[in-house]
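Obj.: predict assembly geometry.
Materials: sequence records (below).
Method: joint structure prediction, all chains together.
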Amino acid sequence: MAQTFFSVALGAVALLITFFALYVISTVVWADRWVRRSK
Amino acid sequence: MSTTAGTPTKAPGVYPRSTVYRGKSGQWAFVMHRITGFLVFMFLLLHIVDVSLIDYHHGTTYNAVHQLYGNVLLRLFEVGLLFGLVFHSLNGLRIVMIDFFPGAVKNQRNLFSIVLGLTVLFTVIGGVIIVKPFFTGS
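Observations (raw structure tokens):
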């Protein structure tokens, strides 16, 4: 039972990290931090 | 956007000429630093949960949960975690170095290469130690 709960928690954290990573990587494209927007 | 005495001024943007790292390797160092920081923080939360089980049901729950770490998937996850930890700590030192010695900005790309090289080296060494028991069974 505990194993199941912990597996689900680990899976949820892994998913969260994956989505956060995708979000952070996407910011370099749209957040205009390094790349000047073309006018 | 701010205005001073009715005069509109352009918001200060972070453009390649004004940023410290000017994109490229520094940009990816920033991205990796943020992702690995989040990874380490989230695992720390889970780690607090699994260690706190030590006194629950005379340690049987703790042992059951920790058996999961013998699984090959979790061993691979731990290798990724090791990569994240080592990269985050070494890149943090790189950032501190650049903060204390502004001249180091000129060499930030080399410093990033050193950080990546050391991270890969430590991850390979640690990865072998972490994954080996799965194959040897010890």
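Conclusions so far: The interface with chain A takes residues 13-16, 19, 21-23, 27, 31, 34-35, 38-39, 42-43, 45-46, 49-50, 53, 61, 64-65, 67-68, 74, 77 of chain B (CB under 8 Å).
To do: check interface contacts against the pulldown list.
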